[in-house]
């Protein structure tokens, strides 16, 4: 699969958001929502900061774009995210009518695009989200690995 220069720019921005999330102590996941070559919203995980289990990067950008568009439906959009979305986020993508998902790396424990389920490929759903994986997979996986290694090291030190 080849990715466009625009895809690469958007995933680079998502990775920057993931790094910002890590700097705040959040799991480093970043997301960018676009329509055409316009960025509608971008952000990172903020569950700890916002005391909100639903404050995943994907949900945050869908909310922001929905407010900007004055519509919870976001047809013709592409979501770039550094980690395979979970069940909640996949459901939100369907309800928002996102057209395309590009994610960097798989999430073997909670990813619901293909790792633990195939939510977006369910024929019973009334909307299909096209999806592709692998853009900056290594960079995203390395960022996550380093974050959790550091977190485990901090826990061993008692900090």
Keywords:
five-stranded mixed β-sheet; 5 strands; 42% helix
What is this structure, in a nutshell?
By secondary structure, this protein is an alpha/beta fold. The protein has 5 helices and 5 strands. It has a 5-stranded mixed beta sheet with strand order 2-1-3-4-5.
Would you mind describing this structure in some detail?
Helix 1 (5-23) runs parallel beside helix 5. The chain has 159 residues and is of the alpha/beta class. The model has no long low-confidence stretch (mean pLDDT 96). It is globular, with a radius of gyration of 15 Å. Strand 3, helix 4 and strand 4 form a beta-alpha-beta unit. It has helices at residues 5-23, 47-50, 57-69, 87-96, 137-157, and strands at residues 30-35, 38-44, 77-83, 100-105, 130-133.
Helical residue percent band: 40-55%
Poorly predicted ranges: none
Mean pLDDT: 96
Order of strands, widest sheet? 2-1-3-4-5
Topology, number of strands:
5
Strand percent estimate? 15-25%
The chain-level structural class is alpha/beta
- The assembly state of the depicted protein chains is single chain
Largest sheet: 5 strands, mixed
Name the shape in a single word: globular
Terminal Cα span:
43 Å
Total DSSP helices: 5
Order of helices and strands: HEEHHEHEEH
* C-alpha-based Rg, rounded: 15 Å
């Amino acid at each position: 699969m080849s990715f466009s220069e625009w895809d690469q720019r958007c995933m680079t921005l998502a990775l920057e958001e993931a790094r910002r999330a890590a700097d705040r102590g959040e799991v480093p996941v970043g997301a960018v929502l676009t329509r055409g070559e316009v960025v509608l919203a971008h952000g990172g995980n903020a569950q700890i900061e916002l005391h909100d289990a639903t404050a995943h990067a994907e949900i945050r950008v869908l909310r922001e774009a929905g407010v900007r568009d004055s519509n919870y439906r976001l047809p013709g959009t592409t979501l770039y995210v550094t980690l395979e979305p979970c069940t909640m986020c996949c459901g939100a993508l369907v309800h928002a009518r996102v057209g395309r998902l590009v994610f960097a790396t798989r999430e073997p424990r909670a990813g619901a695009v293909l790792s633990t389920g195939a939510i977006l490929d369910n024929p019973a759903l009334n909307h299909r989200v096209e999806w592709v994986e692998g853009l900056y997979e290594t960079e995203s996986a390395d960022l996550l690995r380093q974050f959790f290694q550091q977190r485990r090291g901090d826990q061993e030190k008692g900090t």
